[in-house]
Every structure is written in C-alpha cells, then in structure tokens.
Amino acid sequence: MALIVDVFPARSDNFGYLVHDQASGRTAAIDAPEAAAIRNALIHRGWTLTDIFITHHHIDHVEAIAELKAAFGARVVGPRDEADKIEGLDELVGDGDTIELGDTSFAVMATPGHTLGHVVFYNAEGGHLFSADALFSLGVGRMFEGTPGPMWEGVKRLRALPDETLVYCGHEYTESNARFALFIDPDNAVLQKRADEVKALRLAGRATIPFTLGEDKRANPFMRADAPELARHYGLEGADPAEVFAAIRKGKDNF
Q1: What is the per-residue pLDDT for 147?
Q2: Which of 61, 100, 231, 241 fits a 20 to 30 Å CA distance from 67?
Q3: How confident is the chain (255 residues) per 10-residue block, as mean pLDDT?
Q4: Does 114 appear as a known binding residue?
Q5: Is 57 a known ligand-binding residue?
C-alpha cells in the first residue's frame, strides 16, 4: 500500500505536510509549524497523528511540538545534532539512519548549512523527499549557521537522488527564487519554462510544490554551482564549486 502526502499552508509562507502510511494507518507531520493548521488537516483527512518528524530547530518548524505531543501522544523524532535546541524529542536520528512509519521507510540525510544539524527525510520507494529549508524550488535556505563547503556537499547529495523524486520543501519561495535565478542564469531554457509555470501557478493561487528534482537540477542555480556559466557570471572561472556556491548564496541574500 502507498504513502499519501497531504500538503497545506501554515503560518505565513510555510508548507505543512502530513504523511500517511495506508497499511498501518500511522500518520506523521513533517515538522510542526502550526498546531491549528495540522489539526485542521488531520480532521479533513480523518487521520490521527502518531508521529512528528523534525528537520531542524527553527521556531517555524518546531513551535507546535508541545501542543501536538500533548494532544496526540505522538512520537517526536528529530536531529541528534540539534537535540539541545529542540524540546520534546523522543528519538534522535542522524545521517544514515532510517525512520519507520508503519510499512514506510524514510532515510535520514544530513544537509548542514541552513542550520548545522539540519536533516531531510527521503522515502525512496515512493520517491518523496521532504527537504524543509535545505532545498527549495529554485533555491536553498539561507546559510545561517553553516559554511559553503558542507552546504554544497549536502546539495550535491540531494542532486544525486533520482530525477523523478518529488520534493516537498519548507516554504513558498519559488517566485522570488525564480526572479533571482533568471538574473544570474538568463539563458537557461529549463529555468525560463519553470519560471513561467511558477508565475501561472501563483496567479491562480496554487502552490508550486511538489516539484520534480530532475527539473530543479537543471534550473536551480544552487544545484548548478559547478556549471561553467555560473562561475563566469561571478568571475570565478576555475574556482572550487563551493566558492561559486558561496557567491550565489551571497548574491541571493543581497538581491
């Protein structure tokens, strides 16, 4: 039986996710941005929350842990390297670990940079990647705690996943990401097409996720920091891709 993913808005621009293992009936929230939004999604689906999987310690991803845990008795799983920053964790995980939700398995992958202990959850069988703030459509999260080298290595690990992978990220930032991406990579036909699609989706009031990883590999400048044209844009021909990645991140910060 399959994994069902329910997507809903939370807070001002967060995405909320429920993942439901049909075989067992177990349901997990990916992060806990807002209790009311998660409760409403559960009621709409007729599901009961059994688990919460946390990607990183920022308040807009953990604020509802205490309320949801008290209401449902949910198991809370989160990154071992941020255990001192997240209250209410029951189970600590890190890179290479596996989380089970009934018959569904999620691989835990370390993606440091946005925060040092940030992890993502990858369901290989269903082709679902819950990337939170490590990877956005056409972008990545701000580098609040990490350094360019490890963050670039984490992005490359995600880039190595299958093209057909569906990516569910933490925020609706795609339209602004597209504007910046076109500024530094204006001749990218895949990016141009994606930007047009994004504009149409947003005009229609629709979300831009999930997105396919294969398309993002070709359109997202952060996933293409080793592309010669992006190195040329920053005058960094022959430089280490991590240096180009840093320049792209700085460029986006100041865009």
Answers
A1: 94
A2: 100
A3: 94 97 97 98 98 98 98 98 98 98 98 98 98 98 95 98 98 98 98 98 97 98 97 96 98 96
A4: yes
A5: no
**Cβ-count burial of 77 within 10 angstroms (0-12 exposed, 13-18 middle, 19+ buried)?**
buried
Is the preceding omega at residue 186 within 30 degrees of 0, hence cis?
no
Query: Is residue 44 a known part of a binding site?
Result: no
What are the Cα distances from residue 230, in Å, to 66, 147, 185, 227, 245?
Answer: 44, 19, 7, 6, 9
What domains sit in the chain, N to C, each tagged with a CATH number? 3-253 (3.60.15.10)
Residue environment code for 108-120, b if the CB has 16+ CB neighbours within 10 A, otherwise e:
bbbbbbbbbbbbb
| 187 is annotated as contributing to ligand binding | no
Per-residue pLDDT tens digits for 57-70: 999 999 999 999 99
58 assigned to a ligand binding site = yes
Name the helix (H) or strand (E) containing 208: none
The reply, when asked if residue 133 is annotated as ligand binding, is yes
